[in-house]
């Protein structure tokens, strides 16, 4: 036997074993790379998507806080995800996500009438309110059927194709209260790491306006929506003050609604609170829309007395607008009126003082008109009565403190 050959065989055997072991390890790594890594990546992306859905619900809560407090809110969103490092295995690049504003759409309030001077604006005619949704779209490497998550008019829902699932509903009608917050602004942000979305109050306040429909023309809300009639049924929670709700696109309760028309009870007064917030790029301007009376209308003033008259400038969301000059004059009857400030304050209000003449024969009807424009909604009229018996103390309106009266207009 060739002893050298035996030695050569013994030397080769460990080498072959090492090569086979390396091959097995490489095969195992390849199988892990091919099967385990995609599964781990998909799991990480699913967990991330659940977190982002929670962040979108935080966004909805932040918008509510901005409306309630009148302050800006910074909301953290994490559009993308980075994967945990794994020794000897390769991860795909980090996944990105996009947060963007949807196309503008119009919510319409119709047949809403308000009493008093506020009724010059809320007179039953259709009132369009422009708003947008906020949409989160992930771009994952493995979780290919991940949903988009949408914020729309306070409600958060997931969307895959035409299928939607509500994760946080907002009651637009709750008892006899109507609350609607519109969103405006341009947003389109794609990234991996967390970002701050600034929510700014554009037109917010805690006040409400009393509105109602009639027997023949009930108050209605028309809302473009991707949700189904069944989902709106759950959101509205069978509220007793909603008479009916219908979809424009389909009669099927489980198909996208198109435009939802909510019809409220007839001859019922509702308290309506409208607000608007801004995100991203937005001019964030307030526009004066109508004028209403707050104090002084229908007061009775003695000869030589004074009466305080207060107006309020409001925007289309019924919230105050500052810096608007209001002019007032006595359009009928004797007396004079003078402003106490040059323009509306942060509460939208401007005060005037009506002064009755020292001598008045009998009882006279007085009309004081205040306005910032020519249309009816931009003007208010204060109806007063001046009686001829001189006041015990000239300068006292209606027997009270100077500048105070007994009338209060619609708020």
Automatic annotation (TrEMBL):
NCBIfam families: arch_flag_Nterm
Organism: Haloarchaeobius amylolyticus
Transmembrane segments: 12-32
InterPro entries named among the record's database cross-references: Flagellin/pilin_N_arc, Ig-like_fold
Protein name, as recorded: Archaellin/type IV pilin N-terminal domain-containing protein
Keyword Transmembrane: yes
Biased composition (Gly residues): 396-411
Kinase found in the keyword field: no
Keywords recorded for this protein, A-Z: Membrane, Transmembrane, Transmembrane helix
């Amino acid at each position: 036997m060739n002893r050298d050959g035996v030695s050569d065989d013994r030397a080769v055997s460990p080498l072959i074993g090492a090569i086979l072991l390396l091959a097995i390890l490489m095969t195992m790594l390849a199988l892990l790379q091919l099967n385990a890594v995609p599964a781990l990546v998909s799991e990480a992306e699913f967990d991330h998507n659940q977190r982002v859905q929670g962040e979108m619900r935080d966004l909805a809560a932040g918008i509510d806080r901005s409306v309630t407090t009148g302050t800006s809110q910074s909301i953290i969103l994490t559009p993308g995800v980075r994967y945990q490092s794994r020794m000897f295995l390769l991860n795909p690049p980090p996944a990105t996500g996009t947060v963007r504003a949807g196309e503008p759409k119009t919510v319409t309030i119709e047949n809403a009438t308000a009493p008093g001077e506020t009724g010059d604006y809320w007179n039953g005619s259709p009132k369009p309110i422009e708003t947008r949704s906020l949409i989160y779209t992930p771009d994952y490497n493995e979780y290919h059927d991940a949903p988009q998550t949408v914020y729309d008019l306070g409600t958060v829902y997931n969307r895959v194709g035409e299928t939607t699932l509500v994760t946080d509903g907002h009651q637009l009608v709750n008892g006899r209260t109507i609350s609607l917050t519109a969103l405006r602004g341009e947003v389109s942000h794609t990234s991996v790491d967390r970002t701050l979305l600034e929510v700014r109050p554009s037109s917010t306040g805690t006040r409400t306006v009393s509105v109602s429909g009639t027997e023949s023309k009930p108050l209605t809300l028309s809302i473009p929506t991707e949700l189904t009639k069944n989902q709106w049924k759950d959101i509205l929670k069978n509220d007793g003050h909603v008479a009916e709700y219908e979809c424009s696109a389909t009669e099927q309760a489980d198909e996208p609604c198109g435009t939802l028309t909510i019809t409220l009870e007839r001859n019922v007064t509702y308290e309506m609170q409208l607000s608007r917030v801004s995100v991203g790029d937005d001019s964030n301007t307030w526009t004066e829309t109508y004028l209403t009376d707050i104090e002084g209308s229908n007061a009775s003033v003695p000869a030589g007395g004074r009466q305080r008259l207060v107006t309020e400038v409001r925007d289309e969301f019924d919230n105050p607008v500052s810096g608007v000059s209001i002019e007032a004059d006595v359009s009928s009857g004797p007396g004079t009126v003078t402003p106490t400030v040059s323009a509306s304050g942060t509460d939208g209000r401007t005060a005037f003082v009506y002064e009755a003449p020292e001598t008045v024969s009998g009882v006279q009807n007085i009309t004081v008109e205040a306005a910032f424009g020519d249309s009816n909604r931009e003007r208010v009229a204060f109806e007063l009565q001046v009686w001829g018996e001189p006041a015990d103390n000239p300068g006292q309106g209606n027997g009270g403190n100077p500048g105070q009266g007994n009338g209060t207009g619609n708020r």
